[in-house]
């Protein structure tokens, strides 16, 4: 089967990070905002390194003002993601970018996003669920506000809580209160770690935040004992190889540790992170992985099994997705 046609599950995806540059340019123009500096000569997002990437990302996001903007973003992104063969998507939604974590504003943004997602499900068959995500470099107080937004809206659509942002800022334990709130609301938990931080950042995230999944986590490969621990405990890594390569963490696909982690028994999954920022799509990730490591359709099917078991959605949704993966209509 062609890589596009293979059914896919994607667990690590930032909604704003998936905004096509043309959409952001269009919205900026309508609002008379000059953000031309974030684009390169080819019209794509341009950044020098990870710190600069975060600034460009936040500048792009700053044009998304109203709930209707997020509805348009969701509609655009889901149409494209469905065309990549993705049948189930968990997307990171940040209350910080949706009314600055004000709870009543968050309800309005979330309503707009969830409506657009329901519409995309009817039209394109893609099922999306939201993982409320706080931003590490905005600090623990903002994280608590985001966790409150998550806890207050936990349910069929909001199924998880996570943390993205600059891993060099603060320690996981500074954010334990926010993660405890989310855990009490029965949300699934994930945190970005082991991307810019080394193995110790993964150990701390597991010990102090007691998460179910790790966003990235690839630098665990630098500590064989941690690799064994991940394999034994079944912690799931949301690996985004194209993102890691575009941001300069690894020089090439052949250098990327995803295959070594998988062979060591670690539960890995594949996602795009912020596709237009990294010139990637789920199909491209599959094609590059097949080229670099001889992964076959069976390898990808096994990856989907891992991803579905680690998905934060309810059992009925999971069962319906399982049928889609098996080629049966749910
Ligand atoms: N936010 C969006 N993409 C991210 C990444 N790769 N790492 C940390 N925070 C992010
Ligand atoms: Zn991410």
Return the string of H and E elements. Answer: EHHHEHEHEHEHEHEHHEHHH
Strand content: 5-15%
What's the number of extended β-strand segments?
8
The name of the CATH superfamily reads Metal-dependent hydrolases
> Roughly how many Å is the radius of gyration?
18 Å
Number of domains: 1
Structural class: alpha/beta
Terminal residue distance:
21 Å
Global morphology: globular
Low-pLDDT stretches: none
What are the distinct ligands in this entry?
adenine, zinc ion
Mean pLDDT: 97
Strand order across the largest sheet: 1-2-3-4-5-6-7-8
Biggest sheet statistics:
8 strands, parallel
Q: Write the CATH fold name.
A: TIM Barrel
SSE map:
Elements: E1 8-10, H1 21-30, H2 50-61, H3 67-83, E2 86-93, H4 103-124, E3 127-135, H5 140-153, E4 158-164, H6 176-184, E5 188-193, H7 199-209, E6 213-216, H8 224-233, E7 236-239, H9 241-246, H10 258-263, E8 267-270, H11 282-293, H12 297-310, H13 315-325
Parallel strand pairs: 1-2, 2-3, 3-4, 4-5, 5-6, 6-7, 7-8
The structure holds adenine and zinc ion.
Adenine binds at residues 14, 17, 57, 164-165, 192, 195, 243, 273-274.
What this model shows, in words?
- The protein has helices spanning 21-30, 50-61, 67-83, 103-124, 140-153, 176-184, 199-209, 224-233, 241-246, 258-263, 282-293, 297-310, 315-325; strands at residues 8-10, 86-93, 127-135, 158-164, 188-193, 213-216, 236-239, 267-270.
- By secondary structure, it is α/β, with parallel strands linked by helices.
- It has a single domain, classed as TIM Barrel, CATH 3.20.20.140.
- An eight-stranded parallel beta sheet has the order 1-2-3-4-5-6-7-8, with helices on both faces.
- Strand 4, helix 6 and strand 5 form a beta-alpha-beta unit.
- Helix 3 runs parallel beside helix 4, helix 5 packs parallel to helix 6 (176-184) and helix 12 packs antiparallel against helix 13.
- It is globular and about 50 Å long.
- The two termini are 21 Å apart.
- The structure holds adenine and zinc ion.
- The site of adenine has 10 residues, from loops.
